[in-house]
Write a structure and sequence with these properties.
Blueprint lengths: L3 H4 L10 H15 L9 H18 L25 E6 L1 H5 L3 E3 L6 H10 L4 E5 L3 E5 L7 E2 L7 E2 L2 E5 L5 E6 L5 H4 L44 H9 L6 E6 H14 L6 E9 L6 H4 L3 E6 L27 H4 L3 H7 L34 H24 L5 H28 L3 H12 L4 H9 L28 H6 L9 E5 L6 E7 H4 L4 H7 L2 H10 L1 E3 L13 E3 L1 H4 L3 E3 L1 H11 L5 H7 L8 H4 L3 H10 L9 H7 L10 H17 L9 H4 L1 H8 L3 H8 L6 H4 L13
Antiparallel strand pairs: 1-5, 1-8, 2-4, 3-4, 3-8, 6-7, 9-14, 10-11, 12-13, 15-16
The chain binds protoporphyrin IX containing FE (HEM).
Protoporphyrin IX containing FE binds next to helix 8 and helix 21.
Amino acid sequence: MREGLFYRWPLTVANMDPGLAYLLHLIRIYLLRGHVWWHMPLVLTMAYTLFVRERLLDNALFDSYPSPLPRIKRRCNDPVLGDGYIGCFEASMLTDYGFDEQFLAPVTPKDCIARCKTNMFPYAALQKGKSCYCGMWYESEKKVKECKCRKKCKGNKKKRCGGAHHASLYNTYFCTEIMKAARTIDGTCNDLNNTAAGSRFYRFGRNVPLKYAHSNPGNLFKPDPRILARKLLKRKNFLEVPWLNLFAVAWVQFMVHDWFDHGTPVKENRIKLPLQKDDPLRKKMGGYMKVDRTKPDTCRTKDDSLPPAYQNDVTHWWDGSQLYGSDKETHALVRSFAHGKLKVGDDGLLPVDSKSNIDITGFSKNWWIGLSILHNLFTREHNLICDMLAKKHPDWTDEQLFQTARLINTAQIVQIHTLEWTGAILNTEFLHESQIGQWFGTLSPKVMKILKDMNVTIGSSSLPSHRGNPPDYRGVPFSLTEEFVSVYRMHSLLPDTIAVRQMDSGQPNGNKYNLPEYSFGKARRVFDDNELDDVLFTFGVEKSGQLVLHNFPTSLMELRIPRHQAGGRRLVDLATIDILRDRERGVPRYNQFRRLLNLTTPDTFEKLTNDTVTAAELREAYNGNIEDVDLLIGSLAEARPPGFGFGDTPFHLFLCMANRRLRTDRFLTIDYKEEYYTKEGLEWVENSTMKKVLLRNFPEVDGLNSAMQNVTNAFYVWNK
Ligand code: HEM
């Protein structure tokens, strides 16, 4: 696969490190001779990924907001286009939280917000149609029904300014020193020059220019996504990754829930897909598969040149929001408000919601036993960090302990993901070596020696570590992207069945759970029926599914989503939905996507995949039209470097986006420092590994140490 990107590159780039320029020259020669990039020698492969990463960071990031922004702010929850309205609150809150009255006549929300922002307050409140107050803090418990805030504003009769005993509350997006020193609940105040960037409800951005991101309703069923799912995705036999365990599967979903969620789909304008006569779901679904639409943008602007945009229901930042919540209500639910800790039940596990029977945590959709293990693990870890901090700082308040523990816990999750999970799923030498370069900003002795033998010196500034450096936004405000969501559609990692094994003997204990029995409200039963030792051991020794065609869990193709999550119990085929969603959201098809990333595109099915049988299947399913192949299907079918758990196309996008997440976050870059984390906090992060986190949080599990004795990385399969 010759990479197009390199043909158009000049032989050297202005100001490029001479050592890197020489490597670039060698890479071009290799690629022009027809070599696949991963077949190049170690240092060239490493350099190739470095160049591609930088090229994509410069050329493949697009903001979804109109430019220039409309002057008038609207009543919607978008942090950029909206007016910052939070809701109607009891007026007693203003006195309880020391809101200051500002004298403005005649009052309007716009003026009040501007005044409060100028006076360095994060919140503005309006009451009785005539008063403006500014405050530092509010409590979500004091929120009341909208109808209580009906008083017309003296300065603008079209606007409402609270009521006799109630106040309309607004966000000013001003960041106080306290907000700057910790991760905020909604993700504001991370980028201090653009305080709303990456916050909850901020639009997903794009990795392709916006003109290529329009959805074509006429192509939604081209070809029929259900037929593709049945023919190309459905699992025949479980194909497993020999080296990767079930912790790795749960982990990536645990991460995804930190980064993004499109919210609960809506029934308006449902997609109605006719089902074939021989389709086993035809009868159960009444002839059609009805798929709810992605929740539309609450602040859609009428500009047809812009593709539809969607809002992220959680914060975009890598901030542990799956544990801590992205809204005040959830946040209050998970905190104990004592000693900085998160709530844990008497049995040492997360409390369970009595209606859904699912653990109470920051994000609990699409729940299964794997998520339960990790949420319990990192909740315990948070509490352990609080104990460590409290010992060092006995005078600290609950809030100080909580915020510092959150920073530390999150940073170690980031480290585990970058160094361990990524190293396990992309289990290949060049990747392991590149990670050292990216994380520590240095090269290993082995790579240094190779370079020395080649007579190549690389300047230290060519490998900047994100830590300690200023955030690097590349001129585009930080957000995650629709395409990034697409490449994480990794449902094929899941097994249909989990058979629990005894830690003592390594043998099955007789309890076997199909996916519906280990997911949603039934997940907890796996803990209840089995010893904790055996559940953890099973996750360590059982293997994850391969991300290839014909390996989509059959149970997810007939999935019943419970009422509490779907706004009504729903039967869905998740494989069909995975294809449909990309088409609905305007994610380009496989070839177009690669083209737009400046990667080569296969012009025959044989060039797309190494396997002739698969090529024939794809040709038939797509009626011979390679340009129609969906991103998901192409990524599962394509060739990949040995040791890679996923395809070449997702890999290229991850190169860019994984780095972007690290380089843009203030708390992982310039503010990754003692002042916020404490000295002992930084040491905690830097000494942490997944293995250590498991061992220190499950001290009651005797055999854990010996089960993991010979594994260097907790995501590799443990000893049976
Ligand atoms: C038992 C386990 C799981 C269940 C029940 C489940 C279920 C679902 C459901 C119902 C959706 C929403 C579909 C829609 O758009 O209507 C979804 C979306 C998604 N799932 Fe899963 N899933 C599971 C595991 C995983 C795993 C292991 C991954 C791996 C990364 C994953 C990644 C995703 C992604 C990326 C989306 C798209 C989210 C978005 O559109 O914002 N899921 N899943």
